[in-house]
Amino acid sequence: MSRKIILIFGFVCTLIFTSARVFASDYKSKITVAKDGSGDFTSIEKAIESCKSFPDQRITIFIKNGVYKEKVIIPSWNTKISLIGQNKDSTIISFGDYFGKINKGPNSTFYTATLLVQANDFHAENLTIENSAGPIGQAVALDVEGDRCSFINCRLLGNQDTVYASGENFRQYFKDCYITGTTDFIFGEATALFEDCEIVCKANSYITAASTPENTKYGFVFRNCTLKALAKVTKVFLGRPWRKYANVVYLECNLGKFIAPEGWQNWSRTENYKTVFYAEYHNKGEGSNLSARVSWAKQLTQEQANQYTVKNILSGNDNWNPLAN
Asked: Tell me, which fold does domain 28-324 have in CATH?
């Protein structure tokens, strides 16, 4: 009798273990989106809705060439998602919401994003993300509200408020990206590293509007980036502080002649110079001349500049390496 009980118990345990394994892995980790119907879905949003919440392994959504006119949201429970386009110039997510159209009061800006990322561990590659509203006020193309998010070889197109790098102490990485905008078109409170990016200014205005939290070592860091402008543009500031502890650094970047000689602006709040951290190191180009920079801007020493590595800026307490995605 006892032998039967043991056999039955063993069978039940095996059944439970097998079922648990099947349940844990019973979801698609490779999904294809194609407008012509040749994939699993014709809509990016529908593909995301099909994904398992809090998956054990990364879910990769391959997106074939086409213009996807949709607002895409990556909810907080859809962690570990990668959106991989077929070609950055031909795989386009585009929508045209803007502040006045949304009409939700003073916070309408934050409802305008074409792509809203609320989940951690998101990755995008070979995509164009566009807000097509035009120069009509605040109109976000990309709103990142997750930690450990990376964007490689993407085009981020907009005018005012193109990229919202959000989330206090959240880490975000932009590599080989092409970013366009007019006013404050890279803004927010996240720690974000922009490496080898091309940044194109479309109007006389401001590139960054950081709202870095107090006592945060790194805010927005631009390393080896190229700053360009349309022919009509003659005066652009590297940044102005959205909040008083704004932290922005440009290292070894190529600055065009359109960069304002003063470099930085205080957003008409005269006391901001006491709390912001605006710095440069070994930039080049006609806009890199430091002789007329505002007195409260900093120039990093070589020792200080050497601290601005991917590891130091982004690893945090969990040793995140964005290049390992």
From this structure: Pectate Lyase C-like (2.160.20)
Residue 7 has pLDDT above 90, yes or no: no
- 285: nearest Cα among 258, 264, 257: 257
Give the DSSP letter of residue 41: B
Mean of all residue pLDDT scores within the chain:
93
Active-site annotation, residues? 184
pLDDT for residue 16 is more than 90: no
- Beta-carbon count within 10 A of 262 CB: 15
Number of other CB atoms surrounding residue 135 within 10 Å: 14
Among 185, 163, 66, which Cα is nearest to 116's? 163
Asked if residue 20 has pLDDT above 60, the reply is: no
The residue type found at 118 is: Q
What the block records as the tokens of 146 is: 């997750």
The DSSP line for 37-94 is S-SSBS-HHHHHHTSPSS-SS-EEEEE-SEEEES-EEE-TT--SEEEEES-TTTEEEE
pTM of the model: 0.91
How confident is the model over 206-219, as pLDDT tens digits? 999 999 999 999 99
Contact between 286 and 255 (Cβ < 8 Å) = yes
pLDDT over 70 (residue 17): no
Could you tell me the maximum CA-CA distance found in the chain, to the nearest angstrom?
Answer: 93
Q: Is 298:273 a contact under the CB 8 Å cutoff?
A: no
Beta bridge partners of 206: 237
Cα distance between residue 249 and residue 276, in whole Å: 11
Determine the pLDDT at residue 21: 42
Beta bridge partners of 237: 206
How many Å apart are CA 262 and CA 277, to the nearest integer?
15
Which residues are CB-contacts of 22 (< 8 A; sequence separation ≥ 6)? none
Q: Are 283 and 254 in contact (CB under 8 A)?
A: yes
Q: Report d(CA 79, CA 10) in Å as an integer.
A: 36
Kindly indicate the confidence band of residue 42, based on its pLDDT and cuts at 50, 70 and 90.
very high
Q: Give the DSSP H or E segment for 129.
A: strand 128-131
Contact 288, 255 (CB under 8 A): yes
